[in-house]
């Protein structure tokens, strides 16, 4: 009888559709579907007014960069991923430095140049009051709110309480709060607690930074706002290329260096992790055709390239929203912050000889661990377990036996 056709050969058999085989058509269909979903989501965010074009392209860059770059990659070699991540970090850093950072400096210069604001405490208090209203606002509670948020037995005296305190919301003085913000190191635990209460709307900022935020909030709808020349960062002067961009209100706050407000970084990374897990491990018998179009339910190379773009972008934004410094000063200062304590521990103090021996033994142990890393991995059976493959693989693919290898499971061998 005739020999049955091999499924692998059937997948590789080319036809007249652009000369593609079945596997290539499947990959092209998957990329087209994901591209449509990503750009449709970006269009929706722009249409509803949630984000402007610059922030939309910046925050969504890991997705559309993956769409462009990943299809041209046949593997996920660590060196290629590292070089790609460095390139993304440099590009993101330069974009942030060229536009939002310059805009923030322009707003700061505008505030200092505005004599009616910078030298007038009453104008500053008024602007800070408007800024405070973006965090909490004094308003009269309504009967509908009482029915939802107040216990039933407390509603009976709600009317009496409101009558007694009518107009109390008109007295909302921020002078004492500004005094606490202005203090560099408040004495006593009581003052520290008070400062923590106003930390929510001050953001842990100094008074000058809070003034800048309030100034930008007050003048965000002015007819004349600062415009910057992004190409100056690359040495292109305005008389060579008169390319300038406006500085809306968000550009004054995007690179605001403050110790708080980092939750959205961890939320973004956590959401990306959940998305990766759902995409690679989802199973749905009723929607199998849709999952087939999206290529979901199995590990994909492009997730490595997605994470190689997401992490450097988050790193660049995290640095700029925490330290108001350039990399040329931040990197040496960070190195000194690590090296100086080790140097002091090793070579200074009464027990410096003991510390020298301890550090020497630690270095020897690290060198030996690196030299014999493969033997250590084999002895601990770490070569049969990988958190990455556990995260990216479906449960039935795991057969914990001597023959199992991650690369074999992913079809890389």
In short:
With 413 residues, this protein is mainly alpha-helical. It has helices at 7-12, 22-47, 53-59, 61-69, 78-113, 115-118, 121-132, 143-149, 158-164, 175-182, 188-197, 199-202, 207-218, 249-253, 263-281, 288-294, 302-320, 327-347, 352-371, 373-379, 387-392, 406-409; strands at residues 227-228, 245-246.
Walk me through what this model shows.
With 413 residues, this protein is mainly alpha-helical. The protein contains 22 helices and two strands. It has helices at residues 7-12, 22-47, 53-59, 61-69, 78-113, 115-118, 121-132, 143-149, 158-164, 175-182, 188-197, 199-202, 207-218, 249-253, 263-281, 288-294, 302-320, 327-347, 352-371, 373-379, 387-392, 406-409; strands spanning 227-228, 245-246. Strands 1-2 form a two-stranded antiparallel sheet. Helix 4 packs antiparallel against helix 17, helix 5 packs parallel to helix 17 (302-320) and helix 7 (121-132) crosses helix 13. The radius of gyration is 29 Å and the shape is globular. The two termini are 33 Å apart. Mean pLDDT is 76; it is low at 1-12, 167-171 and 390-413.
